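Annex B. Sample input.
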Amino acid sequence: MNRGERISKVMAHRGWCSRREADEWITRGWVLLDGQVVSELGTRMEETQELTLHPDARRNQQRQLTVLLHKPVGWVSGQAESGYRPAVQLVTPATRWDQDRIPLVWTPAVTKRLAPAGRLDIDSTGLLVLTQDGRIARTLIGAESEIEKEYLVRVTGRLDALGLSRLNHGLSLDGQALRPARVSWQNEDQLRFVLKEGKKRQIRRMCELVGLRVVGLKRVRIGRIVLGALPLGQWRLLTDQEIF
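Annex B, continued. Sample output.
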């Protein structure tokens, strides 16, 4: 950390919260520098100074929800577009998985500020994470994220050994070399992809470069969290014991 760094940046770098949450906590008087409440956004600190949080900040963070949704085809991950509905609208009492045993009193606050932590395009299905917790969003989609995402991809076309090798490493999109992936045959018409990045429609575009056409794409894992038996169109809460 450089001297004179913004407090909000320091908090995010330490993994306490997102920068947006840091600014919110500052405005609420929950951030202390050398024991004194920080009163102004943009305040900077030096390495020798002590940064602490009021207990209310942690209590607020513990109440933030993270939803695991089995997104169907035809729903967009983020904001509504071209007449298609955002996946957050699937988070209702009626669509909650009946195997989810975490106590929850339904209020409008359940879906307030739920934001997707990663893309899953409109033509794809599978695990989508929606969260109010900036720490989780940073873990999954931050610039330094190393979280794996696993997909099952049904394809048509012919793929030789060279093409499979290129899918694993050697392709470029938008003028940039892709990071190494792990791609293997799951069965005679389905590939298994494990990626650590998520460019727009990346898998579909990768397949096109080696002469394949994707006819079905499903995300089955993000980090250590698997889709499992969660039914299509339903959701459950991330438990306190689950870590990406």
